[in-house]
Predict the structure of Imidazolonepropionase.
Amino acid sequence: MSTESTVIANIGELVTNDPAVGGEAGGELGIVRDAALVIEDGRVAWTGPSGDAPAADASFDAAGRAVLPGFVDSHAHLVFAGERAEEFAARMSGRKYAAGGIRTTVERTRAASDDDLRANIRRLIAEMARQGTTTVECKSGYGLTVEQEERAVRIAAEVTDEVTYLGAHVVPAEYQGDTAAYTRLASTDMLAACAPHARWVDVFCEEGAFDADQAREVLQAGIKAGLAPRMHANQLTQGPAVQLAVELDAASADHCTFLSDADIDALASSETVATLLPGVEFSTRQPYPDARRLFDAGATVALATDCNPGSCYSSSMAFCIAVAVRDMNMTPAEAVWAATAGGAKALRRTDVGHLAPGARADVHVLDAPSHIHLAYRPGVPQTSAVWRAGVQVR
Ligand code: NIG
Ligand code: FE
């Protein structure tokens, strides 16, 4: 392994997410001004005032720009073929989003070759890296047979460690009317084929998909097989999913679009992160959840894209931040924290989402002087340079 070190010098605003670093002036993002950061062996070796930076083999001039931890996108569905632009257009003319649209992508995905699926996921991961995303969670869920789901998690595992088995995404056409039988398959043979390639088990617990008992069956089987649970919860209705996620100590309850006070209390008194997906509300014309209710109760909040061809075909974490600030009552600092440290918590990772010494060197140099610009200049590309595990990828 190379021992070459790089100093990123002349950082106008360094967001460390380490409260110990920034002191009073840093606030919750652990901000250091006029800073430098040293990368060595793929890790952050040092951060501090620019003038105190130790010598390194190479140097990069940040020219007064802001530097953030790489985004942690803790919710994405990237193993698929085709797209659903017409469905989006119909929604914008009034049609409602429903779980059934997933089956369109299932048909296209089943017909695709391994290499087609590989090319698509690699294209999207590269698109994300260009925008500062350095950790990506990726779900299966568009195969829905034993072979197809195994293929999806295997291909996802080629590009990320954060692979989620989502065999219980919807009931496929061939099991229509027999959700119980499909739930059994997803909890037995399909799970057994997928578990060796995955870290997580997820269920879409919703009207039109799986009810709470069926979700519990799949998640408990997944836990027995060595996977950790996370959940699609309360996307379309105020159902039982959030409470089930908390009951099972899921790492994350995702969507959280419709939350009762009891759901918020349950999240706040648990280790389950509430992962908000603003791009979904945007792309499905749903009401935005009020993140302030979650913060006021003391819940931990993450932001993720949910990048998928149906409910949100965007890979942009910056877009999520802008919408969360504009429409979900988050401050720019809260949104940037949720898109970095919050995502890491939703994946139960301690090595990413922050830039304290020892962290993986996932470094995002903005083309802006402050993290606030991510929300302040929506739609404007603002990524200047990116390192992932110490390797410059942009
Ligand atoms: O998280 N809600 C379930 N799954 C995805 C949508 C998948 C699709 O529409 O293709 C989601 O929104
Ligand atoms: Fe999703």
Q: What stands out?
A: The CA atoms of residues 146 and 189 lie 7 Å apart. The chain has two domains: 5-70+353-392, 72-346. The chain has a mean pLDDT of 96.
